[in-house]
Design goal:
Layout lengths: L6 E5 L10 E8 L13 E3 L4 H6 L4 H7 L9 E5 L8 E9 L8 H14 L5 E5 L8 H15 L20 E5 L6 H25 L7 H15 L2 E5 L1 H7 L2 H7 L7 E7 L9 E6 L1 E5 L19 H16 L4 E11 L11 E3 L5 E3 L7 H15 L3 E6 L3 H7 L4 E5 L1 H14 L3 E3 L4 H5 L8 E2 L10 H10 L7 E6 L5 E2 L10 E2 L4 H14 L1
Parallel strand pairs: 1-7, 2-5, 2-6, 6-7, 10-12, 10-15, 11-12, 14-18, 15-19, 16-17
Antiparallel strand pairs: 2-3, 4-5, 8-9, 9-12, 13-14, 16-19, 20-21
Helix pairs in contact: 3-4, 4-5, 5-9, 6-9, 8-10, 9-15, 12-15
Length: 522
């Protein structure tokens, strides 16, 4: 299921003269220092709104304040223009306090653009006149605004059978006001934003799809079809091929479901071989997770349709890679299974022979993600990779440790730091975590090479146990990073910034930033 997409273009016309349904401007809240000599509650207009302010004869900020505007981040206040400018509505979006001597941070602009476009649902054409610097920071600011606008315009199509009068259609077209709409650098940022945001929205659509409509075979088919259309190489291993290949972990998890497991491999080869480096992306694709025999509580289980968010992110990122054509080889691996309780399910106490040949003692069938990922990681290392980035909604321990916005990162220290930097740059924060020796010791098995979780079922360091287990399947020569998105992969609260309720698309933009980083710096 594909949701409607907002289109994007640049304009350099005076914002006050644009024939649009609404014009978005930025407003800052004043600090105590700035308020000296100013009326209480006064606002500061952000750059880009000068012609709009002039049309209101200097009364724009005063009027917005009367309507309750404070300039707080993400706040959107709408004002009827009554003919003062061409657009019938001015929407003022809060940017927080004005940074001293600098433009707002990219993530501030990204969230503001998303919040404004989302708040203006029902409008056909919206223009953004937000602050864009004319210095070295200009590309990053424009990237943030364009990404935020496209992501904020997303709404899952859904399954309602009757018209919803109160449900307004997403904004169809966004115009971004820039100094020079023909500038090659600015146009390149638009092209990139469309590819990147398109990938994020595809990932969201897959995550939000009802789990009865996206079981492993249909998920694999959806990814494979999109990948072939994008020009990627595609290989799909069905249950027979998985059995013949010895993918014990994927098969064990998938054997309890009537919908058999899959492993999808997507390949991008740059022209001329690129810079010679090879990047592997691996994503967990549990299309629904009941916990299996170790069944989960009923409360909240419906959100386990999002347990394939890692695979959705990797598959979607590969589509963007095909469009952006970086100078580095990239291969995606998407192991897919449905974890169900049945007479054929794998059991606590089972010993599974993995693709790598290692034998794993199963203690908890709800720790299934690491089982399918271990096989995919081993395959990726066997195929050859210099860098391996794996992402998954792996552990509730990530949410407990870092909350619902910050991903946990484990693996090669240098690569974990690159992930953290990429997360900072894209607004998808991640924090490096350790892989202690005592956690590995706690996973010693009496009967196999390693137990799947702590042998005493101790949940201390639960997130770290997942990373320690996956490390066993990464070969020594491969730098790797495991990105646990159990929290940020799915947003169950109200919409905020450019996040809507449901799948977030995290960490698609982080993965693409990392691919660019490897392409540029090796």
């Amino acid at each position: 299921m594909t949701s409607p997409r907002t289109t994007l273009s640049l304009v350099d016309t005076d914002p006050a003269e644009l024939a649009v349904d609404a014009i978005v401007i930025g407003v800052h809240s004043q600090t105590a220092e700035q308020e000296s000599g100013s009326p209480a509650g006064a606002l500061l207009l952000a750059s880009g709104a000068e012609s709009i302010a002039a049309a209101f004869d200097g009364k724009l900020t005063e009027t917005l304040a009367l309507l309750g505007a404070t300039g707080g981040p993400g706040e959107v206040i709408k004002l009827a223009t009554l003919g003062t400018v061409t657009a019938p509505v001015v929407a003022a979006v809060g940017l927080g306090p004005e940074p001293s001597g600098a433009a707002p941070a990219p993530e501030t602009l990204r969230r503001a653009a998303g919040a404004a476009v989302r708040a203006l649902a029902g409008a056909a054409r919206v223009a953004l006149a937000l602050p864009l610097p004319d210095d070295a920071d200009a590309p990053a600011a424009l990237r943030a605004v364009t990404e935020g606008a496209l992501l904020g315009g997303y709404r899952f199509a859904g399954y309602k059978t009757k018209p919803q009068p109160a449900r307004r259609a997403p904004v169809a077209e966004v115009l971004v006001a820039v100094p020079d709409a023909a500038d090659a650098t600015a146009q390149a940022e638009v092209t990139r934003a469309q590819a990147v945001a398109g990938a994020v929205l595809t990932s969201r659509d897959w995550v939000n799809t009802a789990p009865n409509e996206l079981r492993p075979p249909s998920f694999a088919e959806a990814v494979a079809t999109a990948a072939r259309e994008a020009g990627l190489g595609v290989e799909v291993l069905d249950e027979a091929a998985l059995a013949a290949g010895g993918y014990g972990g994927i098969l064990a998890v998938g054997q309890g479901s009537e919908a058999p497991p899959r492993l999808v491999k997507l390949t991008y080869t740059p022209e001329g071989g690129g810079n010679g480096k090879r990047v592997a992306l691996v994503g967990k694709g549990i299309t629904f997770d009941t916990g299996g025999i170790s069944i989960k509580p009923a409360q909240g289980m419906w959100e386990m349709k999002s347990d394939m968010a890692g695979a959705a992110a990797v598959g979607a990122a590969m589509l963007a890679v095909a469009a952006l054509k970086p100078s580095v080889a990239v291969t995606g691996y998407l192991p897919m299974a449905e974890n169900m309780p049945s007479g054929t399910s794998y059991r606590p106490g089972d010993v599974i022979t993995m693709y790598s040949g290692k034998r794993v003692e199963v203690l908890n069938t709800d720790a299934e993600g690491r089982m399918i990922l271990a096989d995919a990681i081993a395959r990726a290392c066997e195929d050859g990779a210099d860098y391996l980035f794996e992402t998954s909604t792996l552990t509730g321990g990530q949410v407990i440790a870092l909350g619902k916005r910050i991903a946990g990162v484990m693996g090669t220290p240098e690569l974990c730091e690159r992930v953290r930097a990429a997360g900072d740059a894209t607004g998808e924060p991640a924090w490096p975590m350790p892989l202690p020796d005592d956690v590995r010791k706690g996973m010693d098995s009496d009967v196999a090479d390693i137990s799947q979780v702590n042998a005493g079922m101790d949940r201390a360091g639960h997130m770290l146990q997942g990373g320690v287990f996956l490390r066993e399947f990464v070969t020594d020569e491969v730098a790797w990073a495991h990105i646990d998105i159990a929290g940020p992969g799915y947003h169950s609260g109200e919409a905020t910034g450019y996040w809507t309720k449901g799948g977030t698309g995290v960490p698609v933009r982080t993965l693409l930033h990392l691919v660019d980083d490897v392409a540029a710096n090796g």
